[in-house]
Design a protein that fits this description.
Distance between the termini: 78 Å
Structural class: mainly alpha
Helix content: 55-70%
Shape: elongated
Strand content: under 5%
Number of helices: 2
Order of helices and strands: HH
Number of strands: 0
Largest sheet: none
Length: 66
């Protein structure tokens, strides 16, 4: 026969593990230094500037490209 398992304890352990994994994800997402945030913002701004500089404004929707 198998071992006797207390379902209440198993449920609590599963909830603790879920909370722990959620905390790990939040540490990754929100636990960044100001320097890391500034570097990411600068990279995003640089990318947007490059893309805006390469945009063709002379095309209107529905106009064929010639």
């Amino acid at each position: 026969m198998g071992d006797v398992v207390n379902l209440r304890l198993v449920r609590k352990q599963r909830a603790r593990e879920a909370a722990s994994s959620k905390a790990d994800q939040n540490r990754i997402l929100f636990g960044r230094t100001a320097a890391e945030k500034a570097a990411d913002a600068a990279a995003k701004a640089r990318t947007e500037k490059t893309l805006d500089g390469a945009r063709r404004d002379d095309l209107t929707p529905g106009t064929p490209i010639t």
